Protein 1
Amino acid sequence: MRGAGRAVRARLRDRIAASDPGLLRLTAGLRTVGAIALTLAVLSLLQTDVHLLVAGAMAAMVATFAIREKQLGAQAVTLALGLPVALASVSLGAVLNTRLVVGDAFFVVLIFCAVYGRRFGDRGTALGLIGFQVYFLSLFVGATVGTLPELCGAMTLAFCSSALMRFAVVPATPTGVLLRLRLAFRARLAQLVAAQLELLDAPAAEMDKALEALRDGTARLHETAMMIQGRLEEGTPDESAARLVQRRIADAEIAAERLGLLLLTARTAERADTLTLHLPGAPAPSVAGPEMPDEAGATLRRDLRALHALVLRAGSGDTGTGLAHVRNRLLGYRDEENLPPASAAVQDVFRGIGESARAVLGLRIALDGPQDESDDTPATARSREELDAEDAAIDGGGEEAAQEEQTGLRRPTTRAAVQVAVGSALAIVGGELLSTQRWYWAVLTCWIVFLNTASTGEILVKGYRRLLGTVFGVVAGIVLAGLVGKHTWTAFALVLVLIFAMFYSAPLSYTLMSFFVTAMLGLLYTLLHTYSLDVLVLRIEETALGAACGVVAAALVLPVQTDRRTNELLGTVLERLAEVTEAAVGQLSGGPADELLDKARDLDQSLADLRAATQPLIHPVTPLRTRRNTARYVVALLETCAYHARTLAATAELLPTHPSIAADPRLRGAAGRTVRNIETIAARVADEQAGAQVETGPSIASLLGSDGTPRYGRITDRVLRHLERLDEAVVGLARPLDVPVAAPKG
């Protein structure tokens, strides 16, 4: 029974880790709710007025969620600076809220400064957010000069409560966050292997469903890998350790994605295209048969289950003879003589399982350190030697290239500050026409729709989502206010629940977050004895007005059109893709070593930025269906290109240590066409008048020469396949991007 209980707890822990990588959402929710609860507890002991309770709760929330630095020391400095900013802001709000013109003008200036402060990094963003939100708080609770001493005391208490929760009760050190992210990666890797097992057994009628689960698992694994990349420098003791973890995470991700492709190929009538894994809604290839052959299928099921168990136990400190036996068997598939009799496609799957087991072994060593080697087979010992040689070759180095900084109104923070100031001025005028008492809701919405957005389309979609969440939140607020009535502490308890839900759901759905915010505000109005149906309806009107003002300002004042924004990011992705491809091919051709994993990480980040920027183009409310499908197709093709480029980079870094991979000088010339095509497409995206054409011609394999030299004598088949798939995907980008393609030369 005790063992069963441990197994249940382990499964629950893995499920939570996979759904909330690093427990970042859970930590944010608990920390914020804890700070608010502590503030309310102390204020209630002091028997303060309900207005101070509301002010203290809102201040504790702001003081907690505004701080975003990763290092605890930097967080402490920002929190300490935030308190005087908050006290100054609430004081100015109390003095100016009765002076219509001066107060409104100051609010616009404050908004401009708060947004402009983003150019100074996380600290500038946090202090600007605190200044704006606390000024809004002073308007919400009706602060006056007479109540300032009590309000300042509540603010100070709120900041102290936030500090206590952040640094003592719910601490989140960079090392701890990175450790939890590693566990999340392991859990999501196990989920992806489980999805691959389902794909193996899926009947023909359910292949699309199984493929969608495989896509989702692949994307979630990549998301966690990117989160880990962003935390490596702060969460590891030195640069060498960071690079080791980076390498092992990249190996595991590539091996898992490749295994999924090989499985899909084995189940279908033709070789699976990598694009199938990256294009949402793409139909599954036709199934070759109802199921795998009995003997081969049974062996594959057994070994995929074994790989799943191996992944779950990697990094958990679990050791034992059973685990060693499973690991040794799977690693044996890296040797041709150990492959079971089956078709070529099925044998490729067994090879993929062997490579995945090697990646899991490397991940385990990176997380747990050296392992017991007493039960190693020759195949396992050889894998360890390869990993040890790779680890020894990893060193620090490479300085970040200085990025060209834009100046004046071209700087994004300056442009956004001007836009928000204009939009807020419009929201103030329109909001006061709707209500002289609660006009600030329109300003708040205008402010929020500009957060983390960079184009008119993004602002439009965010405004739509906020309005939708607000409408449903008003309905929930009406219901909750009717149920709670005048039960103050019941209302505060529900407020805490809604705040936790708001922070936990924020990264998942902006509409859902807006719903929880509005429902919470309905309860706060009840506590302030200002609740009425008219007030909540007015909230919808002010929200719609604020969103409209934000869109108008974004469209008319220094506008950044969605197409222009996506084209800029698309150009960046293509530049990064060309850099990674050229550097990887250069190293595979015998050139000097380069910081390939860093370049691959930059490619992944630029692709993530592009994916986020295309959301307005692929949103369901977008009326242009053709453009929506084109955007999805282009992003999927780029993800396919990035996968092949990442794999080439990882393979190139194996050159100094892997005995079966050697440099082949012929590769540089053979892959030159691919790099030129990427550069041609990038030039066309930057300038529609560019006249260069994408080249086509013989396959990469045929370009390696026909002089009698063995085609694959000095490079692996895998390298060649990735080069060919990358070349095909790059040529495939030409059509949706309207880049002319030259006819093959006869």
Protein 2
Amino acid sequence: MSDIIQLLPDNVANQIAAGEVVQRPASAIKELIENAIDAGADKIKLIVKDAGKSLIQVIDNGCGMSVTDARLCFERHATSKIRKAEDLFAIRTMGFRGEAMASIAAIAQVELKTRRIEDELGTVVEIEGSKVVNQYPEAVAAGTNILVKNLFYNIPARRNFLKSNSVEMRHIIDEFQRIALSNPQIFLSLHSDGNEIYHLPAETLKQRIVHIFGNNYNQRLVPVEEDTSIIKVEGFVGKPEFAKKTRGEQFFFVNRRFVRDPYLHHAVMNAYEDIMQAETFPFYVLFIDIDPARIDINVHPTKTEIKYEDDKAIYAIIRSAVKRSLGRYNIMPSLDFEQETSFTNLITKKSLDEIIAPTVTFNPDFNPFDTDKSKSSYSRSDSYAEGFAKKTGGIPSNWDSLYEIVEKEESVQLPLHTGSELETDRPQAIQVEDKTSSKLFFQLHNKYIVSQIHSGFILIDQQAAHERILFEQFLEQLDQHKGLSQQSLFPQTIDLNPADNELMKDLLDDINGLGFQIREFGKNSYIIDGIPADLGTGFDEIKMIEKILEDYKNNQSEYKLAKRENLAKSLARNAAIKPGTQLDNTAMAELVDKLFACQSPNISIYGNPVIVTFTLQELAEKFGKN
């Protein structure tokens, strides 16, 4: 029997390695920009077309490469970062594996132009599928200019797994933001399909944060700084009142390298305990500087996971540093034992002798039960009517009809409790039964609706019920693209960051299909001319759009929903009535009728129960009656 084990060809091995290193265009961009940073560049320009599917171009002014290095950099495990195994425990550069360039060249058409400052001519290398097609000298600018064309052109199955351009562009922006945050001293720019998305000059970390996320972040940041013998922590955290329900604005950098670490994230969340709303996530950009010998970054090819020598101590330091900063800048509540508690400092600066006590005057002859208006010195005719007559020159003949009280149907109160219970312990009952509804509903704590049925009673979560109604209604409008719109009296302008702007472009047609009237207005700006008529009034259009985008991103990461279903769910969540909203009997009856007309009335849009049924048998068992 012949031998069956053999070495794979280099091009096959490189394609296999590319599956771990280059997962999408954003992965290739990360590797290329990190190489430019390691080359000492202080100006880096990124150009993409079709969200990186057609073209990725990175131009830097780094040290450049010689003719030999330009050819050798595309070989597997060829790197300038390390020389021996011991160097793995003293890594300060972004890359060190020597796999990225070989992996990219195996799945794309690559053109490299590079020149060192001391050289007169540079080198051009053209590679397709790990095979060198051409190499020749050429006069090029100092530094490196690398073009990656038609990513995954020789792996069509992998290319088909790529998402839409808007989704891939958001991944590119995420990677670009991480690199920009970790290197504020470097000029960075991002161009997509001829449009400049980012133009970030060399600046401080706080300025870089504001330029990336918006001017409103300038007042949200709290500085963090702690230097110990184990690690040094510095950066910024967000104020708790600006925490969001979605993840994505949490950044940890270890030795300037972005990492994902749930353990350290928990340390930050622990520092915010009791000062932030539940299920919200604060903004933070934290840099950890640690001796490379104390960590191991050779865990995964993407280099976003790190093993620590003493993770418990790092956890405690980060938690204490964040908590201390929040307390230092008066974010956390604190007790001031030096506060003056006496009442010597009055509001007024007048002396006590000059203060005159207020007096109360009344008409002793006033009798509210006396129908004779002549006996009352204060009547409608003597007050409002006479004043009106002085202004208009006369009293209208039918002026008293303005004060006629329309007789309403007496309300019917059906108490749920009897006996000597405290009034504060009684559930709130809606007392009005109008002619439009034959059933009487009760509202408990302005959150739940109680309705009697033949076998007992049902309890309905009013917010979940309204969300279900709106969700199915919005889904139908999206299918028909016929959402009714209500024109805004004053159009509002909303400014988005580049990441949200890409999402808005992708959703704009569907959002307008729901009844919104939104149009683009310059770079990253939109004008809101109208909102869906079903939303009614009293909504802040800008906050509504921001919450819809936030919930959309949260649903996308947690539930992996289709675009239209996700959008309908996000709008329904923000447009539905909230707990604490008081409803009259007519509103409750209408809500219940619409709920039972839905396709899935029993299940909320997030899979939780909407209706809970209590039978008479269950009630009897509660009272010990079998």
Protein 3
Amino acid sequence: MKKIAPCAIGILSSLSFPAATNAQERQLSLPAQLVLGSEAQEDDTRLPLARSTLSADELETSNLGANLSESLQRVPGLVAVNRQNYAQDLQISSRGFGARAAFGVRGVRLVQDGIPLTMPDGQGQPALFDLDSMQRIEVLRGPLTTLYGNASGGIIQGFTGEGSFYPTLENRTAFGPDGLRRSRLRYGGQHGDLNINANVARLDTDGYRDHSKTQRDTANLRLGWDIDDASSLTLLINSLDQPETQDPLGLTAQQVREDRRQSVAGSQTFNTRKTVRHNQAGLNYTRRLSNDDQLTAMIYGGERYVQQYLAFPGGGQFSGGGVIELDRNFGGGELGWQRNTEAFGLPVELAAGVTYDYQGEQREGFVNETGRKGAQQRDEFNAVDSQDAYLISTWQLDPRWTLTAGVRHSRVEFDSEDDYLIDGQDDSGSVRYSQTNPALGLSYQWTPAMSFYAALGQGFETPTFQELAYQPQGSGLNFDLTPSKSRNAEIGMKYRQDQTRIDLALFESRVKDEIVAGEEQQLTGRGTFANAGRSTRRGIELAVEQGFDHGISAYLAYTLLDARFDEYQRADGSDLSGRTLPGVPRHSLFAELSWQPPGTGFITALEAQSLSQRYATDDNTAEAASGYAVFNWRAAYTHAVGNWEVEPFARIDNLGDREYIGSLIVNGAGARYYEPAPDRQWLVGVGLQYQWR
């Protein structure tokens, strides 16, 4: 008998609004779901973690505006690439965490306006970010980020902006090669106590590679209501519809050399494609109870439907089908409390709360009869139930020293009810994971412009349901797969002076039970996973921003990362200890030189992006993706006439027409590891805005 997933229950906190105190008295913001440093204007020199902020201007610098990777490449420690395959979403990793993900995002927690875009099992979908109304994005790395849930690599959190005071209607349309077109319509305005910010957008493309045609429609709404001087309410609604997105699959090294734009023959034979429909809503409530206390609450819920046609029939006894259908309901909440007070005569800020998140999905599998749905091979209901409790505090030890400490206890339970009993075997089962993660950070303000910090923390990642989906042998979920646990350390320096901004971080993460692709995946095509012994990631992140006279500015982000297995014994007896983690470059760099003549409305910039060699497999024996450096150019001009504003823009990516591998499918089946990046590409567009005054 099929279960029905429960509706979203509980209340979710977004501890992002400080209690009413003087600026001199207030310490660091200690939000729960919105995380340390979520205040837009907060001085982050006292935060004992690495923080990168992307403003609305940086998110929309003559870009298509559809993919988070367009701007995240600016962030040190992150590798964010467009797969040129909208069926599998972007590939994002942070300090090496998440590089194994063949689709979606693993190891990095995604949040928008306090609502988690990462499901309770740890799988996140970056396509859900509302980039059209984004005010800014915060990217946080370091040991203290492990206080916020099931992830080890850090947090990417987006903040939707309020609509402008005067009613404003805007259209922005961009065109590119291969039938690329994206257009959005956005409205914002203040109507009494109600603020409205809404947008709809459509993306169409035939794709750089064969068999990669895509249509994606999005709609987003933010309603903000100032109830009174002490409380506010925000409603957020998001929708995504992406029907029949073609999947060209990865290529072998030989196929890349023959024709880098081709799709795999199996993608044509089995008509590989993916349909996604996603709808969700969230409600934030904030109430200042007194000068020292604040209560925040939020509830969210939604539904997600996925149908995917894979490149094999899937008719074997334990295959589970070559057509996958997932019908998911999800929701949850968090209730939090925040106070500015004193303890032992020292100013202290406290945050505490409890969370509940739920994910339930009906999973069915069918035989792929050359692009048509055939006989049923799988039928089960899977559920994830997650509860957390946390306590975080920041102590002002003296005017220069600040101590941040916290602890979070998490309990995650996976449950599967098997309704496919034709094979005579009931594969129902459940497993529960429990973990308590402490973290500690210390910051020292050496001068008003420079600070130093150090931090320690412990984190964990549970397997996702997709990673549990198949056993190496037999049917049912792979409950032998265990969470990976990490111990993280970081020291850093921050400098802020006039037009100069410098961030430097040195970090190390030691991981036990690293989750890796199983050997059977490369032989059978089934996505099986296993636990490796131990691994270590250590490296350096540097970001430098410098302004000059006459509107010239320069920016550099560089990462040195050594990520390798310390202990890794495969089931076949091979020893992979000492091998480099696949998909992780040792060096990554982004640089930009821009010119914006004051008072002209014109801006142009030259960008450089570089990644070093990346291995495709755990054993490092397959042909590696060679290192590369590419250069991009962009320009835009903004001109206002009365109530109208027009902004034409253009960009050229890969000016040197370099051939390189953009992303890797780590340990992919059939040695199809490689997803080629496009050659020289152009983009032109125009934004048109009218404001009623």
Protein 4
Amino acid sequence: MFLTQTVPRQREIIEVVFRNGWDYMRRLLTGGKTDEPQLPTPAVLKNILVNLGPVYIKLGQLLSTRPDLLSAAYIEELSTLQDEVPPVAWSEIEVLIRKQLKSPLEEVFQKVNPVPVAAGSIAQTHRATLADGREVALKVQRPGIDVTIAQDIALIQGIADLVARTDFGQTYEIKSIAEEFTKALEAELDFTREAGFTDQLRKNLAKGSWFDPKQIVVAEIYWHLTSEKLLVMEWLDGVPLLSAKLSSDNNSKDIATQRKDITTLLFRAFFQQLYLDGFFHADPHPGNLFYLHDGRVALLDCGMVGRLDPRTQQILTEMLLAIVDLDAGRCAQLTLQLADSAQPVIVARLENDYDRMLRKYHNVSLTEMNFSQVIYEILQVARNNKIRLPSNMGLYAKTLANLEGVARAFNPEINLFDEVKPLMTDLFRRQLVGENPVRSLLRTALDLKSLSLQSPRQVELLLDRVTSETLRWNLSLHGLDGVRRTMDDAANRLSFSILVGSLIMGAAIISTKAQTPQLSVLSSVLFAAASLLGLWLIISILRSGRLR
């Protein structure tokens, strides 16, 4: 077992857990009963992650994007985690930069500021000037962080193996979640991946469907200088959005109008990412939204992104309408369509939970409704009903929550539903016919043609299976034994009635045509048999008590 190995990092983790008094992990580590695990309180969990260091802080930040797994209290607490750590000395950083560059540092840069502008758990950022005078930002990986992450990933997976043996671990698929988180951590070590995300977002937002693309900025990547451990990108002069000092001196618009325009720009840019592009910046916290000195808005740090396929985009669009209409039944249907597991669900209970959740919004106007809070509550209901949703639903909800939070702090008068309404008609039109209506029409015609050609063949195959008895129907209906016996009795009596009638009719025909003694005897025998059978049938009906 990995926990029995005496390595300093493992002892440190055990000490942190014991020091913070998390009873469940104390029992787990000491071999006690672990059938009913309890998470530590949000504050204790945050302290454990902070004490464990930068990698676990990053893990907490990733957990804060999973409202489908954790309640709102945990999401709120973990969202405050910041990976601000002391910077690495310039002497160490310089060595790493020189190793990553193909040319001498002095030939590439006129100067590099040795004092970082920001320092995080995985990298720190320096401002520099290229040889041609362009200002750039250097994101440099902390030396040795890849070794630390590899060690901590092994420990995280080991803990997940232990928890996976409990019912709790199996219900929530702890091993697959740990695997997902470790892959995300490993991916952050490759800066070319982040550079690719940045480039893709920059190209997508260059074509603004609902906004002026000139007003939104994503940094340009200098690929010839970028590597796995060094990311070189355009320097953007500005300040965090919430620190922006707006002025109407050199602008015809007053400050309130400027704030509204900026928040509308942000909402529309993110709604295009979510509902049209299917590729979105998943971490729009206040530090990643910048107000530039020229009045534009910039999106920074594309290390965390999310993706939505067209089917999911359509379902989420319909979910918007279901929330506006407070339609619990439709919310339940859409949640089941999103479900990532095939576990049985009690639909009536799910609908009742949604109805109970939405009922409190019946007398609340749309302008007062916190949309991201409603999304969190929908994920909470799904989690309570043991419905496992795809991980991108957590990123989707977290992105909306961060965006709405920053927008409300910057412009308290803003309302997400007011921003959505003008886009809904166009959004449904685009999802219905796409960007090219003629192409969509032709594609639909081809689908109909394919359906018309395939349907007769499918019907023929079905009939072949029915007639050849290769098609079996397995139906299990409980409580029908009595009905079956009653139907059997009725069928038997009907058969006897037909038989009696046939005998009487046969005897009558023979008696009218009888010209010999033998035929007369036969007619009498038939009448006697019919009379006896008829009498027996009447007695059986009377004895059954079901005459009426």
